[in-house]
Structures are given as C-alpha cells and as structure tokens.
Design a protein that fits this description.
- The chain is an alpha/beta fold.
- Helices cover 26% and strands 26% of the residues.
- The protein has a single domain, classed as Metallo-dependent phosphatases (Purple Acid Phosphatase, chain A, domain 2).
- The chain is built from six helices and 13 strands.
- Strands 1, 2, 3, 4, 11, 12 and 13 form a seven-stranded mixed beta sheet that branches. A six-stranded mixed beta sheet has the order 5-6-7-8-10-9, covered by helices on one side.
- The termini are far apart.
Length: 269
C-alpha cells in the first residue's frame, strides 16, 4: 500500500508557512509515503520562483505540480529543465521548457508516476488534455510506474469530471486544482480511480481565493486593474489523503484533509 498526501494550491508566503508548520505532523500522523503539492501560486500568490520551490521541497514535498501561472517568473524555465520533481502541464505546446510527468520513488522503492495537464474550458487553448494525459500515462506505465497520479488544473467542473471518468481504471488518483475551493465530491470511481474535483487551497481563507479582499472587490466593482496580494488571515491547509492498493493501481480510499493553523497570531508572521 502507498499513502499519498496531495495538498491543494499553496498561495504565497502564508501558504508556504502553513506547509512548514503543519506538513510534518500530518506525515507522521498518517504515515504518509509521498507528498505532492500544487505550487503554481506559491510565490506572492502568482507563479513560482526557485526560492519558493526549494522551500517547499525542503519542507517535505516530494513532487510539485503547477498550472497556468507556472511561467510567470522567467527564472523558473531553467529550473523546470533541471528539476524532474517539478512538473508543468504536459499539454503546453512544444518546445515548452520542463516536463509534464515524472516518476518519484517512495522510501521502500515503490515507483509512483505523476502527470500534470491543464484544461481548456475558460482557460488557454492548449493541446487536447485528454489525449496528452493518455499519452503521458502510457509512457509512465512503460517506464515502470506502479501507480499514477494526475493533477488536472482546470476551471470547469464538467471538464474535471470528464477527465476522472476518462482515466478511471488506468490511474490511481485524479485531482482537480486551480479554483482554490475544496469540493465535497471525493470518491473512488468504479474502475478504482480516486477522484476529487478540487483539492482546495493551502493559504489564507479569510480572502477571495487567497487574495486580500479589497483588491479583488475593487477590480470587480470598477472594472479597472487593482493590485492583488495574498491575505494573511484564516490560515488553512487543504488536500486529500489517498491509499493506493497493493498493486498500486486501485485506490482503496480517499479522504479530504483540512487543517487550521493559528500562525497568524504570531507577531513575526
């Protein structure tokens, strides 16, 4: 059996501090074998820097996935090429830097494959995420992956649901990311694939999807650009804990995770 903890979109420094504060005790409590984190908003709430990525790896992440903001900071392109454990959506057209899938080994030598793809509904018109995901899954199986996890970074619930059913029985877990709102539809599909439409957000929930309310409200109310910056209050870590079966292919169960922190009460935060 493989126990996997997958954390929803980490937002800014507050989200990274939550990972540092809460992840070690979660790993110990649940005897987690691997930790995956969606990190595309980990630097200032928009994009990922080398410093933020290294911080998340140092604090316990085994693999980082991303999404539509991954290329926000130019420095990340070279880091993507150098770092197999950081992946970007595989359906970016070539020659995008980096890779869309990877294999990570547990401490006992079990090989788990990870795939990152991005939706097209209300998003950028990238390559077909379904065919690309299928291609990446087949390549990981050929490379010896015993279990496969897919992060589908997408806006529309219907598109996420479609991906879950499309891959049912072929991967151990399909998670949705991007909306920063945890859904309550976690399930194991008939073919044995665990699924949830959105992991949620690791960051400040007294906010508008992680950002200070004033800036977002200003943009909606005036139609003019406003500065968005991460909020600091209502800190909560969200994600899922999944147990993959003996052969790794089927999921035994999936459990939503929500952990509240009082870090904001620390004057140094």
């Amino acid at each position: 059996m493989i126990k996997l903890l997958f954390l929803g979109d980490v937002v800014g420094r507050p989200g990274r501090r939550l990972v540092r504060d809460l992840l070690p005790r979660l790993v110990d409590r649940h005897q987690v074998d691997l930790v995956a984190i969606n990190a595309e908003n980990a630097a200032g709430g928009l994009g990922l820097t080398v410093k933020a990525a290294e911080e998340l790896f140092a604090d316990g992440a085994d693999v980082l996935t991303s999404g539509n903001h991954i290329f926000r900071h130019k420095e990340i392109a070279e880091y993507l090429e150098e770092t197999p454990r950081l992946i970007r959506p595989a359906n970016y057209p070539e020659p995008a830097p980096g890779r869309g899938s990877t294999i990570v080994e547990t401490s006992t030598g079990r090989k788990v494959g990870f795939v990152n793809v991005m939706g097209r509904v209300f998003m950028a018109p990238l390559d077909d995420p379904f065919r690309v995901a299928e291609r990446e899954v087949e390549a990981l199986v050929a490379a010896g992956a015993e279990a496969i996890v897919v992060d589908f970074h997408a806006e529309a619930t219907s598109e996420k649901k479609a991906m879950g059913w499309f891959l049912d029985g072929r991967v151990g877990l399909v998670v949705g990311t991007h909306t920063h709102v945890q859904t309550a539809d976690e399930t194991v599909l008939p073919g044995g694939t665990a699924y949830i439409s959105d992991l949620g957000m690791t960051g400040p929930h007294e906010s508008i999807i992680g950002m200070k309310r004033e800036g977002v409200l200003g943009a909606f109310l005036t139609g003019r650009p406003h500065r968005f910056e991460p909020a600091k209050r209502g800190l909560r870590l969200e994600g899922v804990l999944v147990e993959l079966g003996g052969a790794g292919t089927r999921a035994l169960n999936i459990q939503r995770i929500q952990e509240v922190s009082d870090l904001e009460k620390n004057s140094a935060f």
